[in-house]
Amino acid sequence: MQIIGHEKERALLRQFATSGNISQSYLFSGPESVGKALVAFEFACLLAGEPDFEPTEALPHPLDVMILSPRQEKKRGVTKEKSISAEEAREGIQFLSKRPQSGYRVLIIRDAHRLSHTAQNALLKFVEEPEPQAVIILVTHDAGSLLSTLLSRVATTRFQFVPEALLAEKFTPLFRSQGESLPDFFFSLGRPGILFRALEDSQGFARDKELLSLLFRLSALSLRERLKLAEELAKDVPRAIRLLEWYLPGIHRQAAREEQPKRISQFFLFLENVNQTLSLLKHSQGNARLALESLFLAL
User: Fold this and answer.
1) How far apart are the first and last CA of the chain?
2) Which of 6, 58, 230, 264 is the most exposed place for a label (fewest CB within 10 A)?
């Protein structure tokens, strides 16, 4: 488990754990792929009394730690993330109700914005009347999707992008050791999760780079090529969301280089369209292909 950056946040959490000044409900919020879930896991291990725990295939987390994540499903050739159901949330609450072996029992909920409304209400009841040695950590890059009543009852730790220089320092030697290099653009995104994925799944990441290159050349693509790109991205909605998230900073940079007010206005109008499409893909079960086609044809 290698965490890049977030030293202040980690030091504060360690202080909470060692001093006993612990809130029983936390929200770790901030951009996607910056390391929130890894810090949550590190904190959970501290609370569970296993600060030196190292995950293995046989034992991926301490016995007093449970991790709940959205499941992916594939229907008619399209991959989407399912919401975390109330039943799954209640399983987590049941886990927390049992006596820990040492320290605390901890429930980590990754992508907590995928909790259904009913699941959030189930958690709210537990947050209001928690077990004495139980802690919930909600991890999300979209805190606005959570109930305001739930947000008001959690201690929030906010995470930022990791500095580009730090990512280049840590990852450049790792890529060189594999005989590979990575464009500076990916360091500038400030998301170590992207870089770890590039190291662990070079083949899948290579395809991501190809698709991202097509996005940056979108205005030069023919109508047929744009529709084909929309079709491919729509088959894997989580990947489409991931690539559009990477695409946004690049559009910002292109807009910053422009000098003509009309062109700048066009860029920011397109940025708004990309954000609207991202919102549809994240929060709606609608037609992903249609949403992407509308975006690509609007440029």
Assistant:
1) 42
2) 58
User: Which residue has tokens 């400030």?
Assistant: 190
pLDDT at 108 over 70: yes
Over the stretch 11-20, which tens digit does the pLDDT of each residue have? 999 999 998 8
The residue among 267, 274, 273, 272 whose CA lies nearest residue 252 is 267
Within a domain: residue 154? yes
pLDDT for res 1: 61
In this structure, are residues 2 and 34 in contact, taking their beta carbons and an 8 Å threshold?
no
| Domain annotation covers residue 177 | no
Residues 231 and 118 in one domain: no
Two tokens, residue 271: 């940025």
pLDDT, tens digit (0-9, with 9 covering 90-100), for 125-171: 999 988 889 999 999 999 999 999 999 999 999 999 999 999 999 99
Domain with 248 in it: 218-298
In a domain, 74, yes or no: yes
Q: Is 245:275 a contact under the CB 8 Å cutoff? A: no
Domain ends where: 158, 184, 207? 158
Non-local (6+) Cβ contacts of 205 within 8 A are 197, 198
